[in-house]
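During the first year of the project, the team set up a workflow for recording each protein of interest as an amino acid sequence followed immediately by a discrete structure-token representation. This format lets reviewers and collaborators read both layers of information side by side without switching files. As required by the reporting guidelines, we include two representative entries from the current panel. The first entry is reproduced here exactly as it appears in our internal archive.
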Amino acid sequence: MSGASEHLWYVPNQVRPGHRGDDVVEDHNSLDTLTRHAHALERHGWGGALLGTSWGRPDTFTVATALAARTTTFKPLVAIRPGFWRPAHFASAAATLDHLSGGRLLVNIVSGSDGQAAYGDGEADPVHRYARTREFLQIVRRLWTQEEVTFEGEHFSVTGSRLGPRPVVRGERKHPRLYFGGASEAAERVAATEADVQLFWGEPLDGVAERIDRLKRLSAELGREHAPLEFGLRVTTFVRDTTEEAWADAEATVARLAERAAQGDAWSARDRGGRAAVGQQRLLDLSARGEVLDENLWTTPGRFGGGGAGTTWLVGSAQDVAKSLRRYQDLGVTHFVLSDTPYLREIERQGDQLLPLLRA
């Protein structure tokens, strides 16, 4: 796998409009609207975008397929759950989309809890979920790279399994890159041995450095058989023309989030449902260290319902935020999944102001 830097965004494939301050429009998740986002990403220098997953949202793989058909360079980073798919079925579907899109597919494997009973997944124990994920990744990678696969595991098995269309092979690329998240011990053991990219939330530099060191040690201790693990950052980037304007607007935005949270806003309640996850709790605990860490990593949004990438924000001018992101890059982070709302406006602003600085 190539270690070249990747700059991705986020496409809001949500059932309800107005996600985290996005523009509320009636056709917010229509194919035409989502295509406008994808085309804007192509025009403004982004490599592609993450399509998030949770039960009850539009199916990420279907959305990715539709957008790939309407674009030429856009790379969908499709979040999928092993509890949604059987590994051979997913390997075939992903290889087909990769083949039809000319090798543009990226995959984000998600193992966290997501109301499994609603879609018939009975595996609630986190340790077993990650053991299942490891087998899932092993089978998928083998099907993408081997002529025929037989695998007998505790959670999955295949016998004499072969794929028709195979993923696009180009240079060092042998198949779609496999992104992975999770901060628990079980999750890190899976990442160290089976993933291509470990995604971190917006933690301070010392936390990310600590995790990179630990994952590298784990890779060696557990006998990783693949190319070295790469690292990525998923974070909100709040950019304005000046530092002062950025902080003023950020504080006004969080004031609105606080007001909505006080009224029991559904988005806030749902986002806060991720508290139990180890990585999410690490983010929420950061506020005890201070409101602003590493010069411009703001922890306050997490107090008012900002889950995941919305828990901490990098705030400032394009120069401020680029400086911060380059510090993560100095630690070894080469994949960036950024976002802010309104999503379409910020695709353009940050594509024009921030990306050139990151690539300079």
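The second entry, processed by the same pipeline in the following quarter, appears below.
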Amino acid sequence: MTEFWEDAFRDKKRMWGEEPTGLAVETAERFARLGFRKILIPGFGYGRNAQPFYEKGFEVTGIEISRTAIELAHDLLGREIRVFHGSVDDMPFDHDVYDGIFCHALIHLLDADQRTKLIQDCNRQLRRGGLMVFTAITKDASTYGVGEKLGMDRYRTKDGVSLYFYDQDSIAEAFGGVGLIEAAKIDDGGHGKPVTRFWKIVCEKRAT
């Protein structure tokens, strides 16, 4: 998987453009209204979705598996950004506790054990009262059911990417134990890219 993403970023550079997704902008505004300060972004990529958080003055930490993507992020955002190089499988990379976590279009690329670990690791690094926001591909996406079937709702595309497609039941099962407060379908397109349907998944770490 690491080699795949290195090749993808090397060949296509900033393949999704430099503009952040609408949800990244929306989430940065929401976190700002709540007075959050420290933000974790697993699956940092080349930094386009981190831009709204930097613009709001957040202290941002990223995690990214591709060295090439990190170099592109340095070019886009500056050398001073804090991004750990490695897989989310290796979380935690620090012992910090974060006010908010934003994880876009990553979790559906993982297998079942990895998905569970990512959710648990993010929840452990979230402070009480904090929010974590994930996006995950839906069964409404045009790629659902296309390619080699790897298991229930999981397929390998012609490009060799494995995707797990979520529905309401699988979201409830995966996120119900970590303070799920919202699950809504959104569209994410632009830059000449086809619209892809995602779930916006929001969890709050409540006091116990």
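For the second entry, the following points were noted during internal review. The beta strands are 38-42, 59-64, 82-85, 98-103, 126-137, 148-151, 154-156, 162-164, 180-190, 193-204. The chain has a mean pLDDT of 90. Both points are flagged for discussion at the upcoming steering committee meeting.
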